[in-house]
């Protein structure tokens, strides 16, 4: 069963559906006021509607989408491995209200992460990059995130996050891109992240 992020003021299904209705009403008014402006606005708002539809789909998906994993020493760990694109991670970031240790990366070389910069600047204290080539990630966020680290795998990422995190922080695995292993699914990545968090939790219990 998926447990939604308690640190988010996340929109409900009803709120998202209301947002779609509101988008349609705006488009109608703009079309009546100025056909040329309405044409461009409709295209932009259509993109927004599609993003909302995707968010509605994500909210109803079980597994690896804003999944609570554990709380260790006052730090909460979440698996958002299904967020394999910028839009999905943006939707998660938009509602964050606590400092975040962000684990991200994979096949990120040609991904445009620029839309995440304002939200990362606001919410992310530290980023931990996984993947074979993190140059694009580091270059994009070097002015927005104070600490950026690189590791080789999720075992090292979770271990480093546990050392850097402070009480009431969030450790969030939201890769924002596909795995650099073409044969690895978001489910496999999410499971590996969860296994490493559970390992860490067991170590703290001993």
Please summarize what this structure is:
It contains 7 helices and 6 strands. With 206 residues, it is an alpha/beta fold. The longest helix is centred in the first third of the chain and has 25 residues.
Task: Describe the SSE topology.
Elements: H1 13-33, H2 35-59, E1 67-72, E2 75-79, H3 86-93, E3 100-104, H4 117-123, E4 124-130, H5 135-141, E5 147-151, H6 154-164, E6 170-173, H7 186-205
Parallel strand pairs: 2-6, 3-4, 3-6, 4-5
Antiparallel strand pairs: 1-2
What key attributes describe this structure?
alpha/beta; 6 strands; 206 residues; 7 helices; single chain; 6-stranded mixed β-sheet; Protein-Tyrosine Phosphatase, Chain A
Radius of gyration, in Å, reads 18 Å
CATH architecture label name of the largest domain: Alpha-Beta Complex
Number of beta strands: 6
Helix-strand pattern: HHEEHEHEHEHEH
Roughly what fraction of the amino acids lie in strands?
Answer: 15-25%
Identify the CATH class of the largest domain.
Alpha Beta
| The CATH fourth-level homologous superfamily of the largest domain | Mur ligase, C-terminal domain
Number of helical segments with 4 or more residues:
7
Q: Alpha-carbon distance between the termini?
A: 27 Å
- What kind of oligomer do you see? single chain
Q: How is the biggest beta sheet arranged?
A: 6 strands, mixed
CATH topology of the largest domain: Protein-Tyrosine Phosphatase, Chain A
Integer count of domains: 2
- What would the principal axes of the Cα set say about the shape? globular
